[in-house]
Amino acid sequence: MIEVKFDPSALMFALRRLEEKCGVGVRELLYDQMHLWCNDMIKYLPPKNKGEGDRAVARDINKIFEGKNVYRMKSGLPMFKNEDGDWIPVADKYWNPSASYESMMQYHKEHRNRKTGRVRAENGGWKMKVNPQRLKSYISAIKRDVGTLKAGFVAAAQYFADKARGKAKIPVFVRQQPHKSGDYTDRSDNKGNAYLVSTNSVGWAGENKATQRWLAFTQKVRNKYISHYTNKRLQQIADRFGAEKIAEAA
Questions:
Q1: Of 90-99, 109-118, 161-170, which has the strongest mean pLDDT?
Q2: Residue 29: phi, psi to the nearest 5?
Q3: What's the rounded Cα separation, in Å, for the pair 114 and 225?
Q4: Whole-prediction pTM value?
Q5: CA distances from residue 107 to 21, 128, 137, 154, 208 in whole angstroms, order as listed
Q6: Per-residue confidence at 71, pLDDT binned at 50, 70, 90?
Q7: Domain residues for 179?
Q8: Cα 133 from chain centroid?
């Protein structure tokens, strides 16, 4: 799990000046930044697109599984034919031509890095030999999970975008992701007191170093943005809320 928390205390002076300038309350300005922050996390977290994610899934799974249906038994040992046409004996632990989806999922899970979600190959590069068609079906099934990490920010992005009368920028493959493990917290008032949180509940999100890096980067971007709002952006916010024209820049 990982949380995106917006703490306005250090930025309150800048927010108050923006409030006076565009005629929109601090709470609405915070909503605007929070929904942009969630948009940032969805944009920057891997994968960049569905194709990139699909290719990563196939690469990972092919590190530990190999589709083989040309085999024979010799001296009680299963054997498979390699690309050179030679028969290679296989240890029982790597031989499962009738593997079920559940057994493949368990083997996959055992080889998955808890902090990154990526797969590590066996020492020596040994792969479990399974039915080729079943391997193809398994890869297709796992590809449906591409975008799970991004999808953990969808609920918050949509909620805070609605509050800011903005738009959550969510790629189609993320929007269609069936597993959206995320939520949001909004404890704010008209005085500028706010506790805004986007919670991504994907199991390994909080331990993923790349996620932590992007969180730190996007937080820096959002804090900087508040101090460098352009008149054009302020006018857009004012128009959304039906406020008066913004004051001219000093």
A1: 161-170
A2: -65, -35
A3: 34
A4: 0.79
A5: 59, 9, 16, 30, 21
A6: low
A7: 2-47+148-240
A8: 29
Helix (H, G, I), strand (E, B) or coil at 147: coil
Of 103, 114, 101, 112, which is closest to residue 202 (Cα–Cα)?
114
Q: Which of 143, 169, 193 is the last residue of a domain?
A: 143
Same domain flag for 38 and 161? yes
Q: Is the pLDDT of residue 66 over 80?
A: yes
DSSP percent split of the chain into helix, strand, coil, nearest 5 = 50, 15, 35
Residue 247 within a domain: no
Contact present, 138 and 73 (Cβ < 8 Å): no
Residue in the structure block whose two tokens are 């932590």: 212
CA angle 19, 21, 27 (to 5 degrees): 15
Residues 43 and 153 in one domain: yes
Cα–Cα distance between 238 and 23 in angstroms, integer? 7
Mean pLDDT, the chain, rounded, equals: 83
Give the mean pLDDT of 109-123.
Answer: 81
In a domain, 171, yes or no: yes
What is the pLDDT at residue 230? 65
Strand ranges for the chain from DSSP E: 2-6, 65-67, 71-74, 77-81, 87-89, 128-130, 182-188, 194-200
Given 106, 122, 143, the domain boundary residue is 143
The number of domains in the chain is 2
Q: Is residue 246 part of a domain?
A: no
Residue with tokens 């699909």: 54
Place of tokens 């800011």: 164
